């Protein structure tokens, strides 16, 4: 996606877009170098544009999101959508997005818990905070609302640091959660089945004009 981009489906749900404007993948979610695909789906992305590598690359809010939790030691933050949104696998549900390595999280200069970022605003950057070998963002996505203290997973290590099958939210491959519209250039392995959302509107009620006409017509009929 691009800075300040917004996209709504015909039911006025925000369409979840991929947060970087370009990337190269440095570790897939089925690799085991520093990830555990049995437990969570994490992908590492390097920032990229037409002239190559971008350091401290901006990540744009894929939908309207709120910062739920952060941890300076692990350099990790969790954001949750304000509303149910349109996910790339067709689900309409809450989107949770977990990021690692923005240096600001470690430095304590990151956003405060409760901060809201609107779709298309910068909410995070690639970085070298935490356990890294170079500047990147580690990204995990899931559907459903963030677990509350009533969840059985509450208090487990996976509960906050990863999105799994037994936590809430539940894990989704990034390409099953986020549409790839207007992200270019990107380099990604063949088993990453990115898709673009077709149609949609940059503002809610993109088809309001049409509906309004119908309402006028209906009122006319009623008046007769
Ligand atoms: Zn990673």
Please give a structural write-up:
By secondary structure, this protein is α+β, with helices and mostly antiparallel strands. It has a single domain, classed as Glucose Permease (Domain IIA) (Distorted Sandwich). 13% of the residues lie in helices and 26% in strands. The protein has 4 helices and 14 strands. Strands 1, 2, 3, 5, 6, 9, 10, 12, 13 and 14 form a 10-stranded mixed β-sheet that branches. It has a two-stranded antiparallel ribbon with strand order 4-11. A hairpin with a 5-residue loop joins strand 7 and strand 8. The longest helix has 16 residues. The chain starts with 22 loop residues before the first strand and ends with a helix. The structure holds zinc ion. The site of zinc ion has 6 residues, from loops. Zinc ion binds next to loops.
Characteristics:
Glucose Permease (Domain IIA); ten-stranded mixed sheet; 13% helix; 4 helices; 224 residues; alpha+beta
Brief sketch in words of this structure:
With 224 residues, the chain is of the alpha+beta class. It has one domain (23-223): Glucose Permease (Domain IIA) (Distorted Sandwich), CATH 2.70.70. The protein is built from four helices and 14 strands.
